[in-house]
Write a structure and sequence with these properties.
Elements lengths: L1 E6 L4 E7 L3 E6 L12 H7 L2 E6 L18 H14 L5 E6 L1 H12 L4 E7 L4 H8 L2 H6 L1 H5 L4 H8 L2 H8 L12 H11 L4 H5 L2
Parallel strand pairs: 3-4, 3-5, 5-6
Antiparallel strand pairs: 1-2, 2-4
Amino acid sequence: MEHHHADLGDVRLHYVEAGRGSLVVLLHGFPEFWYSWRLQIPNLAEAGFRVVVPDMRGYNLSYKPAKVGDYRVEFLGRNVERLIRACGSESAAVVGHDWGGVAGWLAAMSHPEALEKLAILNCPHPNRFLRGLWSPRQLRKSWYMFAMQVAAPPGRFEQESVFDWFTSNVCRDPVRPGTFIEEDIRHYAEAMTRPGALTAATS
């Protein structure tokens, strides 16, 4: 795997690349970064694809704009389209998980010509999202989305041990035991403790 950066005009994204062939872009969720696709990258490369996996805007080694307005959803789809162009391609297959699924949907809606195929994991279509969110069952699962709208938690988390927070809040049940090894948790904690990363990711 090779590490690169792409200048997309208003933001500079770090990405990992492997393989040759038709372009496939993998988009991570929250609170992740390119590393969450570490098992899929070599498999897709060996299958004959050129795999590009960015750290999305605000995450890990990518640029972290300071203003909340710089994280408006319309920028997400535009970032995907511009990344595809920056990689020298007119279009690509895009796979998005969670927050990356949001970016994938928005890219398909605003730049359909840039997407050959779209696969979404764990993210409803934006037109259905808000309606489904307000059910009591879903609210219990999505409480963190509202918590992130409060200014205090990101700063508080940066002062605490992110490793301990990640272990107790992200790696607890219902995650299967053994899903995350300590090395994985340290990679995620390192990415989240980069200056401004946790605040950017929750903007």
